[in-house]
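Backbone description:
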Amino acid sequence: MIRFTFKPEKFVNAIAYFIQQCPGVGRTKACKLLYFADKEHLLRYGRPITGDRYYRLPYGPIPTKGLNMLRGMSTPANAALLNRWLSLEGENIRAKRRPDLTVFSKSDLRVLEEICTNYGGYSATYLSKLSHKEAPWKKTNPSEPIDFALFFEGRPETEELRKIVEREQKSRKVLALYRGF
């Protein structure tokens, strides 16, 4: 299974970006926009923007560490980070400040902008239904983690990139064995 490191700074700033740029962003819509952004960035550049791990839940793929932050179930450091940038009331999210765009690469910003343009006008319900049509949701058992390898399905032009990402994943696992010494 392909995994990445979660970047909480990118997570909260991506949500702040979506709130600023797209109409009607609540918790569910933010999670769907992040899914499409992470997927698109992975398919183009070999890594997602936030690095969060997605699970197959009834409303579609959900970024689990990010959702835990939004639900108040994260580490104190992540809770403080979230509280600095966002205010939450149930499904509603409000940005307390403008997103810090310096946490993003140029490619991150390009994809966030495209996702806002292409998906930002849709409702959370529509985005959930749209995500249900995709291989990552279809080919993962309910309440299970989604393998990032599934993001590449149906996109033959990304096959070589998928192989590179999988090789890098194996290298990270081997290197992790030596970090404790």
In short: The longest helix spans residues 159-178. The beta strands are 54-57, 60-63, 86-89, 92-95.
